[in-house]
Design goal:
This protein has 230 residues and is of the alpha/beta class. Strands 1-2-3-4 form a 4-stranded parallel sheet, covered by helices on one side. Helix 7 links the parallel strand 3 and strand 4. The radius of gyration is 22 Å and the shape is globular. The chain starts with 28 loop residues before the first helix and ends with a strand.
């Protein structure tokens, strides 16, 4: 699915999303109503503030709008049922149009730890780049969208992530090898010196002889900075 530069989607995911491995449950009527109202209001507020739709949706004001709309719709649904919502978000109305109020509502200094991060390094591959949205990152050669530098920039410069576990892709190392993961950790440590990238080793305990798998784990542990196992 091609990236839509005009509409990046709502900044808050309201229902289960698929990673390609399963079909998520359909959105509930409440979620559909929240998405409908949020999109309509985002269009109106973006014009009012002189912003593009994309800029508004990617801002803290966009996040505050969605959370405020979710709270309002949940309260309406609960009132129809004669009870109260199980929880809510306390978002001032002005947070959807004032950046300072939005940061007060949704900002914070929480520690963000991504326990399963992947990336694909196609920068030196002679084949074509995959048909993922990342291929539209703006580089002349889409394969350059999949470098270690791009991965670290997305995580640590363009998001609030503080630390991550670089996780093996369960294909026997074909897509993300231990060598690439170790090189990524070395680069991050050289730049930041704070162990913000950890490595998860891959093992398949039910595949073949158990002792052979344990031996493989010991070998990986001897050669790489394994912090956890997948």
């Amino acid at each position: 699915m091609a990236r839509d530069d005009a509409d990046p989607g709502l900044p808050v995911k309201l229902h289960p999303c698929s990673n390609g491995e399963y079909l998520p449950a359909p959105a509930s009527p409440l979620v559909r109503e929240v998405a409908h109202r949020s999109r309509d209001e985002a269009e109106r507020l973006a014009r009012r503030l002189g912003l593009s739709r994309r800029s508004f949706l990617r801002s803290s004001m966009g996040a505050a709008l969605v959370l405020g709309t979710l709270a309002a719709c949940s309260e309406e649904q609960a009132a129809e049922r004669g009870d109260g919502p199980g929880g809510t978000y306390d978002v001032a109305p002005e947070a959807a149009t004032d950046p300072d109020a939005a940061l007060d509502a949704v900002g914070g200094e929480e520690f963000v730890f991504d326990v399963q991060a992947h990336f694909l390094d196609f920068s030196h591959d002679v084949g074509a780049a995959p048909g993922f949205p990342q291929s539209g990152c703006g580089e002349d050669d889409p394969r350059d969208c999949y470098t270690v530098d791009k991965f670290l920039d997305l995580y640590f410069n363009q998001s609030d992530t503080n630390q991550l576990v670089l996780s093996a892709v369960p294909t026997g190392g074909a897509l993300l090898s231990p060598e690439v993961m170790a090189a990524t950790i070395e680069l991050a440590d050289r730049l930041c010196d704070d162990e913000r990238v950890l490595m998860q080793g891959e093992t398949h305990p039910s595949d073949g002889d158990a002792q052979a798998r344990l031996d493989d784990m010991s070998d990986l542990l001897d050669r790489y900075p394994i912090a956890a196992w997948k």
